[in-house]
Amino acid sequence: MSLLLKLWHSLPLQSRAVILKPVQRNARIYRWLMLRHADAIDQADGVDGCLPPAEMRYRVSSSPHADEFVRVGKTCATDIQSALLRIGRDLKSFTQILDFGCGCGRTLVHMKNLAPEAQFQGTDIDAKAIEWCTTNLPFATFRLSKEKPPIDYVGDTFDFIYVISVFTHLDEEYQFLWLEELRRIAKPGAILLVTVHGLDDNRGFVFEREYEKGLFPAWYQITHHSQEYIYSNFSKYFDVLDYLPRGMNAHQDVVLLQKRPA
Ligand SMILES: C[S@@+](CC[C@H](N)C(=O)[O-])C[C@H]1O[C@@H](n2cnc3c(N)ncnc32)[C@H](O)[C@@H]1O
How many of the other CB atoms lie within 10 Å of CB of 114? Predict the structure, then answer.
């Protein structure tokens, strides 16, 4: 691969553009080449020398860049901590924490130092990511999830569940199924932090069938929620404690929820 890359870089830019033109028309081939290229040139160490391959990073961030992957994960972890402080809770006060939709651990890898005593679990539908996490993040335990509930956790297990950029991809039916299931596995009084793409107009809930082809299942698209929609619909499952526009990585909105006492 490195010989091929050397050859590629020895070509004048104009020749590279001519070669890339037909390739760019085929998104899947273009993506494959881009990700192989990212793996070959990656110099970043990740966290404690631990960096998932470019394809896995791309599946959670739509970017092959290692530095960006590490920066966003770190920001998400500190944004979780700041959001909790707004409702008077400290990450260190939780003992059983679930990263629902953990992907290849972009955020989770930074959480351990923020709550060193807590037991962390992670779950995702991406079997390769779960395999990678199991091998590389020994401080947590991992389990494969499915597109629809149930999930294989006992009821009333977690006192904190965070869900970064998962409800940003589900249609309304799946959203409600998962809200109900997350309520089941949360302890009474547990806190949930969920991120959403905000929506400034009055459409409430918008599910757009536009996500990258060939990378995700058909049910996994792009979803936007308005703040009003969150307060009137998520409150059927949880108390809505707070809503922080652009509270996650200055990009997604943060919703803080609490399971009602039994
Ligand atoms: C945009 S990525 C974000 C990943 C991770 N939370 C982060 O911030 O790096 C969304 C993740 O949600 C996962 N996901 C979607 N539906 C899921 C489900 N039903 N159960 C568990 N994970 C799911 C996807 O596989 C993907 O890894």
Answer: 16
